[in-house]
């Protein structure tokens, strides 16, 4: 039986705990726990994959095909809280993607919208953990485009690991059949065909700090290990990371990308 009340999944609750937690006392130690000695922990990878899988099941009954993912007019509060770096990335993608250079990549996803709320439901009780929204939504290129869930993290913001957990949370809430139908209805020009997978794109503002670069590299390895898990690969086709800066109106990034292994 479908429901119009968005459930609060295990993964969203975990994301919300991290969102409200201290960088120094929780997020940084958690990354060391997840990636001891710079390598992903098998136990941590299995834990996150399990959270993802169970949350997909928990969210699968939610159905709200009559509403868009953001109000027709006005701004969301989360837009007002965006960092300058996030605003610059969204602006470049929306207005002039030719000003973004990705090392080793010839194409960029097609910008669709910004700050969409996957669980936006008027006249329904939305969980307290339901604040915020996807930094930007894009679409892959080709004849059968699928959604690209974009999260942007400034140098002064939370860790790349947090950004990955946040993106995974939104993947849960956009990759169910009901939500795929809703995306098609809301953005028919971008998603004309049915889909059952999404991609994730995490954009991280580069830093001269060796420690922050090491943390970024660790999370890339953690994402690769996640994509080896069948329960994750069934819903996520690709996870990409951009590391770099926006200077003089242009963005320059290196790219790390991992796709799931095609099943025979």
Description:
The chain has 264 residues and is an alpha/beta fold. It has 9 helices and 7 strands. The chain has helices spanning 10-19, 23-34, 42-59, 77-80, 84-95, 160-174, 177-186, 210-227, 230-233; strands at 100-102, 110-116, 134-139, 147-153, 198-205, 236-247, 250-259. A 7-stranded mixed sheet has the order 1-7-6-5-4-3-2, sandwiched between helices. Helix 1 (10-19) runs antiparallel to helix 6 and helix 3 runs parallel beside helix 6 (160-174). The longest helix has 18 residues, at 42-59. The two termini are 34 Å apart.
Briefly, what is this?
By secondary structure, the protein is α/β, with parallel strands linked by helices.
Note the topology.
Blueprint: H1 10-19, H2 23-34, H3 42-59, H4 77-80, H5 84-95, E1 100-102, E2 110-116, E3 134-139, E4 147-153, H6 160-174, H7 177-186, E5 198-205, H8 210-227, H9 230-233, E6 236-247, E7 250-259
Helix pairs in contact: 1-6, 3-6
From the helix content, strand content and strand pairing, which structural class follows? Answer: alpha/beta
The outline comes out as globular
Strand content: 15-25%
Poorly predicted residue ranges: none
Keyword list:
seven-stranded mixed beta sheet, single chain, 20% strand, alpha/beta
């Amino acid at each position: 039986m479908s429901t119009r009340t968005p459930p609060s999944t295990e993964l969203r609750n975990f994301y919300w705990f991290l969102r409200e937690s201290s960088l120094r006392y929780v997020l940084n130690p958690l990354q060391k726990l997840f990636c001891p000695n710079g390598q992903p922990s098998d136990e941590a990878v299995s834990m996150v994959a399990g959270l993802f899988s169970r949350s997909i099941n928990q969210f699968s009954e939610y159905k709200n095909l009559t509403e868009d993912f953001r109000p027709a007019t006005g701004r969301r509060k989360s837009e007002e809280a965006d960092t300058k770096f996030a605003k610059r990335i969204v602006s470049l993608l929306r207005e002039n993607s030719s000003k973004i250079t990705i090392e080793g990549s010839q194409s960029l996803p097609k910008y669709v919208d910004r700050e969409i709320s996957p669980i936006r439901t008027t006249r329904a009780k939305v969980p307290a953990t339901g604040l915020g929204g996807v930094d930007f939504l894009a679409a892959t290129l080709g004849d059968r485009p699928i959604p690209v869930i974009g999260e942007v993290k400034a140098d002064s913001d939370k860790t790349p690991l947090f950004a990955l957990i946040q993106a995974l949370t939104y993947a849960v809430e956009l990759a169910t059949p009901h939500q795929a139908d809703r995306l098609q209805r809301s953005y028919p020009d971008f998603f004309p065909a049915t889909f059952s997978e999404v991609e994730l794109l995490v954009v991280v503002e580069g830093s001269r700090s060796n420690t922050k670069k090491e943390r970024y590299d660790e999370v890339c390895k953690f994402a690769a290990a996640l994509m080896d898990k069948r329960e994750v690969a069934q819903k996520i086709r690709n996870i990409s990371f951009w590391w770099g800066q926006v200077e003089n109106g242009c963005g320059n990034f290196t790219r790390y990308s991992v796709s799931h292994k095609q099943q025979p």
